[in-house]
Amino acid sequence: MSLLRNVRNWLDERLGWDDLIAPLRKKTVPLHRLSYWYFLGGITLFLFVVQVVTGILLLLYYRPGANEAFESVQYIMTQVQFGWLIRSIHSWSANLMIFTAFAHMFSVLFLKAYRKPRELTWVSGVILLFLVMGFGFSGYLLPWNTLAFFATKVGTEITGQVPIIGKPLMIFLRGGEEVTGATLSRFFGFHVAVLPGVTTVLILLHVLLVQRLGISVPPKLEAEWSANPSARREMKFFPNFALRELMAWYVALGVLGALAAIFPWDLGAKADPFVSAPAGIKPEWYFLFMFQTLKLIPPKVWFVDGEILGVLLFGLIGLLWVLLPFFESVQPSRPKKWITGLAVFALTYAVGMSLYGYIAK
Amino acid sequence: MTTNDLGKVNPSEQPAPLPRRRFVEVLLSGGFLATAAAFIYPVLRYLVPPKVTDLGADSVVAGKVGELKPNSGKIFHFGSRPGLLIHTSGGEYRAMSATCTHLSCTVQYRDDLREVWCACHNGKYNLDGRNVSGPPPRPLERFDVHVRGEEIFVMRRREA
Questions:
Q1: Residue A223 neighbours by CB under 8 Å, 6+ apart
Q2: Residue A2 lies in a domain
Q3: Phi, psi at residue B152, to the nearest 5°?
Q4: Between chain A and chain B, how many beta carbons pairs sit less than 8 Å apart?
Q5: Is the C-alpha dihedral spanning A325, A327, A328, A331 positive or negative?
Q6: What pLDDT sits at residue A302?
């Protein structure tokens, strides 16, 4: 232990280590019956780290390009030792991460943690969710299979529906008029360079904000605790909460390993621009609610194309969603009821539409 | 002009910025903007992929007589895009673009419905390529079919 202490003293002399970690020592986590929800952000972060590690491992064998991508993933799945495991963990972890990110967002929404002064934490968090969905969309194409090919075709075509900027944006995303190897090159670049860079910076900002502002308490409890300070219950972040979080990560890792081992991820058939879209084709589950909504909007609403209307509507909702905290009342005792109503509606709608999309032919 | 104890001009009475300083400011910021533009413009142009000249075949051999049973269809290459060749149950050949007009998935012929169907969003077209149900907003582009000997030729319709 003396070696460790020496290293620590060495660091302390040069960097003021003790001062540096002092805030972490003082940091506490409020303790109440809903404290469990505080784990979700950390689990999402953990899954992101798993993505980075497995992603780097996949890069050792993956080759982008219309003639190589599918074969290289096939090679990873069949020839490389434990390649199937690494890829399956990457795919499963991606899906779990999107799930925990959504769950984290809704928990923040229902516990009203987005209120002043945490508006920017919410804004950065929702942008992170969009980035994570961008990861999902771009990564989905990389194995270059039929499902991915058509998902990308439809997804980028939807982008193309946006008035004025849509078409140039679609061509930018596709690297041309059609989904081709050029699209694959671009998506690969987005997936392994652009998105990870932006996301890492934003995660740092997000975590820094959480650190700076402390952890939010639901408004009702906050009122109770400020009326009666002796009722306040807290847990030290380090080591008490951190160790619990670590346990949660351990469980997440277990779930991940089990899912990857029991249900290895499918590869499907190689993409061919000259085959028909297969029956029963659907996007990934996290796009399903939008997909199903677009499917239900009639081709023409009044004089507007249904598709354009749907896309604009989702764009507008996305923007308002980012700005949601700014509609909330600044008084903790009087949170706006309609926001809670909206949260319930949004959750019900997303879950309901996803299920409908899953069942519908 | 009054001066304070240190002999400096009182801040409230400072004269308007010297034209010389203004000149340098304009020069510097202008130079900076020009540099930024010189950097951003090529990058923006770089992001736009070069136009691929579509060899846009006007006429292709889509298949051979006898290859398709009546009441079936197949996808053929029409330049860089897929086309759909249908052998109707009446024994007639028809050809149209296979790119759905909704969100450009590739359609297929359904022998059970005797219709053209898009799996992505359940769009349907009749054998004339007319959009009959689901989300497609426009009909599929029809092509002309000519059987010459054993080969089935498909060609783009000439604009009238």
A1: A332, A333
A2: no
A3: -100, 110
A4: 73
A5: positive
A6: 80
Instruction: Identify whether the C-beta of residue A156 lies closer than 8 Å to the C-beta of residue A173.
Output: yes
| CATH number of residue A181's parent domain | 1.20.810.10
What one-character DSSP code corresponds to residue A286?
G
Beta carbons of B104 and A177 less than 8 Å apart: no
Instruction: Report how far residue A36's alpha carbon sits from residue A15's, in angstroms, rounded to the nearest whole number.
Output: 35
pTM given for the model:
0.87
At A48, list the tokens. Answer: 């992101």
Q: How many CB atoms lie within 10 A of CB A56?
A: 11
Structural domain range at position A182:
30-273
Nearest residue on chain A to B73, alpha-carbon basis: A276
The pLDDT mean for chain B works out to 85
pLDDT tens-digit profile of A56-100?
A: 999 999 999 999 999 999 999 999 999 999 999 999 999 999 999
Please, which residues 130-149 of chain B have a Cβ atom closer than 8 Å to chain A?
135-137
Domain with residues B59-156, CATH architecture? 3-layer Sandwich (2.102)
Q: Give the helix ranges, DSSP H, for chain B.
A: 19-47
Q: In sequence order, which ranges of chain A are alpha helices (DSSP H)?
A: 2-15, 17-26, 39-59, 69-78, 83-110, 119-141, 146-161, 166-174, 181-189, 195-213, 219-227, 242-262, 288-296, 306-322, 337-359
- How far separated are the first and last CA of chain B, in Å rounded? 84
A166: number of Cβ within 10 Å? 17
Distances (CA, A) of A320 to A46, A309, A325, A339: 28, 16, 9, 12
Classify residue A218: in a domain, yes or no. yes
Which pair of tokens denotes residue A52?
Answer: 């980075």
Question: How confident is residue A121, by pLDDT bands cut at 50, 70 and 90?
Answer: very high
- For chain B, which ranges sit under pLDDT 50? 160
Residue A38 domain flag:
yes
Q: Is the pLDDT of residue A130 over 60?
A: yes
Residue A288 domain-assigned (yes or no): no
Query: How many domains does chain A divide into?
Result: 1
pLDDT at residue A128, rounded to an integer: 98
Residues 6 or more apart whose CB falls under 8 angstroms from that of A30 comprise: A215, A217, A221, A232, A233, A234, A235
Select the residue of A154, A174, A300 nearest B105 (Cβ to Cβ). Answer: A154
**Mean pLDDT in residue range A129-158:** 94
pLDDT in tens, A155-213: 999 888 888 999 999 999 999 988 999 999 999 999 999 999 999 999 999 999 998 99
Is there a contact between A154 and B135 if contact means CB atoms under 8 Å apart? no
